Amino acid sequence: xxxxxxxxxxxxxxxxxxxxxxxDVRSPAEFAEDHLPGAVNWPVLDDAERAxxxxxxxxxxxxxxxxxxxxxVSRNIARLLEEHVADRPRDWRxxxxxxxxxxxxxxxxxxxxxxxxxxxxxxxxxxxxRGLVRDALADLPxxxxxxxxxxxxxxxxxxxxxxxxxxxxxxxxxxxxxxxxGSVLGGLPDRPQPSQKxxxxxxxxxxxxxxxxxxxFVERESRRIGRLQLPESLLxxxxxxxxxxxxxxPLPARVALLQREYAFLMTDxxxxxxxxxALTALRGRAxxxxxxxxxxxxxxxxxxxxxxxxxxxPLYDRAAHDGEAPARPLPLADGSPDALxxxxxxxxxxxxx
Length: 353
Prior knowledge:
alpha/beta; Oxidized Rhodanese, domain 1; Rossmann fold; 12 strands
């Protein structure tokens, strides 16, 4: 039997992984909230079965819960073997984990090892992995050479990050990880925001693959992106960086860019009405009703222009940047590919020395 244990640091700390497949045996709901990078879900108890065993544990006895759990787990492992293991080669190396590295992962790990696979069970399970993520997120941001792109809403900062990445620069796109553009209109139609835990796992995964010896371009963010909160260590690292840039774009070009970026909202007026209504306390009912009327009339240029001038720009201009390095201006004529590529080349050249 080839069964060993490993820590989360061992599993994800080296260049050569200890495993070919990461197997999360927790229930689908646990897996959906967060999981190790690249993991597949082979639940040895589904959500209903886990609840059933938990009820027996708390209301009847540990012994009865284990009897019932053993029957369910055994049945499910047999099915998992038939569905997922029949075509695995002899040298396949699975890494198995559950919540705390206990009975659920142990049950599948033992069976896989007895078959002859080089099997690892994660010490401490997902709980230990979460500790690794939290510790790393506390330390990694301070190690990076942040080049921070600020600027008013609609100036193409996200598109500029994409242009930088296309030219080989290191980029951290926080809004992509958060599945949100960071404003009241920023929710994406086809991507719900991840859980807070999964956002942090994705952020850890991105940070640990960055080279601290090279600049990292990132958009300046506030404490929250949608409903997700940035780690406490990240904001001081970004806002305290000596390398601050202010992306500037003329208002008409910003409006044109936002019309493209928010085209999905223009076909969903009820959703847009709801998002605009969230600004009532800040801008007053009369203003919100005017903006909603502009949307119903299809006057997108006027609506977006007023949103910029009356809402987003004042918020940005009032943001206090006391004590921070002065931001260097970075003009963008518009959001065209040529303008973005030229700006990206200029930024890379300016940060190469």
